[in-house]
Amino acid sequence: MDMQTRMHEQLSALADGELDESERELALAALATPDGQQYWRACHLIRVALQADAGAAATAIDGGAFQSRLARRLAAEPAYGRRTAAAGGEAADAGGTDAPSSATLP
């Protein structure tokens, strides 16, 4: 394996948080080179693009149905504090910790 390929693998592993501690110094030294800096920027641009694609793919697959169901269920939940006042202040007297219901999403 040539040195440039090795450096790219180390920088990619560093960007992913998977670099072995014993190789960290070499990767950091590679970041001091113009090629290392260019590859580092490319790794981060690729990550951003993949994350954006993953988010878009999840939305396209679900068609926004999950967000709609979540919005409806949140709207149906009583607001924090309103339940406390309606219950005669019992929860407020017990320390004010009125836990929201634990509705499950499909």
Automatic annotation (TrEMBL):
* Sequence segments annotated as region (Disordered): 82-106
Identify the InterPro entries for this entry.
Answer: Anti-sigma_E_RseA_N, Anti-sigma_E_RseA_N_sf
**Superkingdom per UniProt:** Bacteria
Which Pfam families does this one have? RseA_N
Q: Which residue numbers delimit the Anti sigma-E protein RseA N-terminal domain?
A: 8-86
Q: Which stretches does UniProt call biased (Low complexity)?
A: 82-99
Output this protein's name.
Answer: Transcriptional regulator
> What is this organism's lineage?
Bacteria, Pseudomonadati, Pseudomonadota, Betaproteobacteria, Burkholderiales
